[in-house]
Design brief:
Strand order of the largest sheet: 2-1-3-5-4
Strand content: under 5%
Helix content: 55-70%
Structural class: mainly alpha
Number of strands: 5
Largest sheet: 5 strands, mixed
Number of helices: 30
Shape: globular
Radius of gyration: 27 Å
Length: 639
């Protein structure tokens, strides 16, 4: 046995160790069901397996990182640790909405695994049809389990659970693209290209806000490494399995990464078809046909296997009207999306892209820019049929943009002989600028925090004010006072709770409920308001609540016209004296005053219909979420 082990490669020994670790985990899970150590150990194993998979992808892609590459990689990772530590420690951010979803899933996964290993894995599998699957929790539990389990802790732990594999693959992708572009100045190319891509603000944007969606980039980079220069000239089963695994991984990370997968596959097939046509014209028609046949067979087999593997998710996708339900978020279609992409990428990056396009044209190497451009265009068109992107959804376009950055970095590196100082200053300034970008919930343009805070235009002064208020809270103490009042005046055992009308970036029920993570002080004591048509049901809990909270002025942070909380608040203010009396008031110290209203008269049919009739348009579109919900509640209460 020792002789067999000694003959294995380093990577082979790693995989043997992982197999032994998996066996040990199975035994441990059976012997000690519900142990608090089991889930962290599974997570540690998953992270080790993911890193080994990344190394395997590099080997299959024919990429080898030398000592220089590894030194730059380790240095950049260390800088990322310091960056996250500084950013998270220099702000007071309250996690809410999308920014709290993953950490809540982490808590729930821990609770499920505390019951038994089987219950934990069932919890993970049951989430496969949800907008947020629990797939990422497998990788973020370690080292999260060693932390204080706050929102900031969860964001910081991603530097250890997500970033190492991501950086290794990004380094490999940088080397691969440089080789395909036949870069001469490889030292400066890697240094510029790798740092430019790794510091791009929208790579880390969601991570800083507690959304580990950048985890999907690991699988996107795997897919690109395995396919960029592969032309199906022969059968490569290990590569096919790795492509399949990477595709499944990225889909499980977040469902909207499917738009990247479709866009990239379309662009890749188009590129392969063009190269095959050229091959046929050069007198090799048989080779060209064999390429396309292998591609089609692999594509059909992979698609069929993927449907079987992710059948519950496929059923949900086919049966759910995403375009209709998410129409509120489609606030401008492709025209506005192109403008948003332009603002997010910024002038400095577009200069680099322009240099890259000129470089590729001059050297007659159009494949990579065309691949990236086609992928971006298809993904944009498909995504905007459903909605426009937020800052975290930029991640599905990041692989295409980074590919263009790498082509530009090749041009910059190989052109350093002329105007060296100017070009190096351009690179250095861009790095400083990129690292300084404030990653706030309201980020629409990638700008450093000090620029946002002192932006000279009066027209954006309100945006600047709200951006500062939502990113670095100055009202945490006031929010805690409201929480303490609700906690003291609502008895959960008697079914007493409060209902909050504001549902906005500035104030919403999540912000109050999860203000002191991991403690959820108002568990079962605070209900959320209605806001998004097609997503939020008619809020019958409003009629059951002991208290209703509203604010003056009502927070409306850049909401679209169809937002519902403003309309509900107007209806409430017009009729509240018949059913409510003022119980308390809280000045939040930023111009907003919260008022607590106590219900004095029980809800009746007239009150319910008063609110329901104001949403006739929404009821016509979503009767199962409005009138049917209201009638069921009325019937259940004998009204």
């Amino acid at each position: 046995m020792s002789g067999i082990v000694s003959r294995l490669s380093v990577l082979g020994k790693v995989w043997l160790g992982l197999a032994a670790g998996a066996l040990a985990l199975i035994v441990f899970g059976l012997a000690a069901p519900g142990s608090s150590l089991f889930f962290p150990l599974v997570s540690l194993w998953c992270n080790a397996a993911l890193f080994a998979l990344a190394l395997l992808v590099l080997r299959r892609a024919g990429v080898e990182l030398d000592l220089f590459h590894k030194a730059v990689l380790v240095g950049l990772w260390a800088a990322a640790v310091l960056y996250f530590y500084w950013v998270l420690g220099s702000r007071t951010f309250l996690y809410h909405w999308d920014y709290v979803n993953y950490i809540l899933k982490q808590y729930h996964a821990e609770a499920a695994f505390a019951q038994s290993a089987g219950a934990g894995f069932r919890f993970l599998l049951d989430s496969i049809t949800e907008d947020y699957t629990s797939f990422i929790t497998l990788f973020t539990e370690f080292p999260f389990c060693l932390s204080g389990k706050t929102g900031d802790d969860y964001a910081f732990c991603q530097v250890f659970s997500v970033l190492p594999s991501l950086l290794v693959l990004l380094a490999g992708l940088t080397v691969k693209v440089g080789r395909m572009l036949r870069v001469k100045n490889r030292f400066w190319y890697f240094l510029i290209g790798f740092s430019w891509c790794a510091t791009f603000p929208f790579v880390r944007m969601s991570a800083v806000l507690g959304q580990p969606d950048w985890f999907g980039l690991i699988f996107a980079f795997m897919l690109m490494l395995l396919t960029l220069d592969y032309r199906f000239d022969g059968i490569d089963l290990p590569r096919y399995l790795l492509i399949f695994a990477a595709t499944a991984g990225i889909i499980l990370t977040r469902r909207w990464y499917l738009y990247f997968v479709v866009g990239y596959c379309f662009a890749y097939v188009l590129m392969l078809a063009v190269s095959s046509i050229r091959l046929a014209k050069d007198g090799q028609p048989s080779r060209a046909v064999h390429r396309m046949v292998r591609l089609v067979v692999f594509g059909l087999c992979a698609a069929g296997a993927m449907v079987l593997l992710l059948l519950p998710m496929v059923r949900k996708i086919l049966s759910f009207d995403y375009a209709g339900r998410y129409s509120y978020y489609n606030f401008g279609g492709i025209t506005l999306e192109l403008a948003a992409q332009t603002l997010r990428i910024g002038l400095l990056n577009f200069i680099l892209i322009g240099m890259g396009l000129w470089f590729a044209a001059k050297r007659r190497l159009p494949a990579l820019p065309c691949l990236a451009g086609a992928e971006l265009l298809v993904s944009l068109v498909l995504f905007t049929r459903v909605q426009n992107t937020g800052s975290h959804q930029m991640l599905l376009f990041v692989p295409g943009w980074l590919l263009l950055f790498l082509v530009g970095s090749a041009a910059l590196a190989d052109g350093l002989k002329k105007h060296t100082a100017v070009k190096l200053c351009y690179w250095g300034f861009t790095m400083v600028f990129a690292v300084s970008v404030r990653c706030s919930p309201l980020t629409t343009v990638a700008l450093p925090g000090f620029v946002v805070d002192h932006f000279p235009l009066k027209a954006v002064s309100e945006f600047v004010r709200l951006d500062k208020l939502t990113y670095d809270r100055t009202d945490a103490a006031q929010i805690q006072r409201v929480d303490d009042w609700i906690d003291a005046h609502c008895d959960a055992e008697k079914g007493e709770f409060a209902y909050m009308i504001p549902h906005d970036m500035l104030y919403n029920s999540d912000m109050f409920q999860y203000a002191a993570l991991p403690d959820i002080q108002l568990q079962g004591k605070l209900a959320a308001g209605i806001s998004i048509p097609g997503t939020h049901e008619f809020p019958v809990r409003f009629f059951e609540a002991k208290y209703v909270l509203t604010a003056e002025p009502l927070p409306q942070t850049f909401v679209s016209g169809g937002e519902l909380s403003g309309r509900w608040n107007a209806l409430f203010c017009a009729a509240r004296d018949a059913h409510f009396t003022q119980a308390a008031s809280f000045d939040m110290g930023n111009g907003t005053v919260f008022t607590v209203w106590e219900r004095t008269e029980p809800a009746d049919r007239a009150e319910v219909e008063y609110y329901l009739n104001a949403f006739a348009q929404e009821d016509a579109l979503y009767p199962e979420m409005f009138s049917q919900v209201a009638e069921a509640w009325l019937a259940g209460h004998g009204l």
